[in-house]
Amino acid sequence: QVLLVESGGGLVQAGGSLRLSCAASGRTFSGYARGWFRQAPGKEREFVAAISWSGTTYYADSVKGRFTISRDNAKNTVYLQMNSLKPEDTAVYYCAAHTAVVLTARYDYWGQGTQVTVSS
Q1: From the centroid of its chain, how far is CA 45?
Q2: Dihedrals φ, ψ of 51, to 5°?
Q3: Would you state the pLDDT for residue 83?
Q4: Please, which residues have CB within 8 angstroms of residue 2's CB and are 6 or more apart in sequence?
Q5: What pLDDT is attached to residue 101?
Q6: pLDDT along the chain (120 residues), means of 10
Q7: Is the CA virtual torsion 70, 87, 47, 58 positive or negative?
Q8: Which residues are within 8 A (CB) of 48 and not within 5 positions of it... i.e. 6 or more apart?
């Protein structure tokens, strides 16, 4: 059974930082693209960041310069370092895996999500 498990969410003040992790089990994702998405209440799930199997990164304009995606293939894990957090970053954050980088929610595998709340 393939599992993606996110961790690292929580409550932080505006301007603070959090680091999300997404550990995969059940198969190796070293040859897969990995992505992060988020969904705020009443809104659609939106793309945040993605990283290809070779390490090329992609970011939504809203997080560019503040968030950094990285991966450790030896640990089958992808990370999202979030700095200078804003209240509008509040959402449930989901990690995902797919055979190629896509900037929409058309990923094959999904985690259960972790809540990030940024207070003003």
Answers
A1: 12
A2: -140, 130
A3: 98
A4: 24, 25, 26, 27, 109
A5: 85
A6: 95 98 93 96 96 96 98 96 98 95 90 97
A7: negative
A8: 35, 36, 37, 38, 59, 60, 63, 67, 80, 93
Residue 71: name the closest of 116, 112, 92, 101 by CA. Answer: 101
Q: What pLDDT score was predicted for residue 100? A: 87
Residue type, 89: D
Amino acid at 19: R
Tokens of residue 68, six digits: 């950094």
Please name the residues in contact with 47: beta carbons below 8 A apart, sequence gap of 6 or more. 35, 37, 60, 103, 104, 105
**C-alpha to C-alpha distance for 113 and 82, rounded to whole angstroms:** 16
DSSP labels, 35-95 = EEEEE-TTS--EEEEEE-TT--EEE-TTTTTTEEEEEEGGGTEEEEEE-S--GGG-EEEEE
Residue 90 token pair = 């509040």
Closest CA to 91 of 32, 45, 27, 23: 45
Q: Which residue has the tokens 């957090």?
A: 85
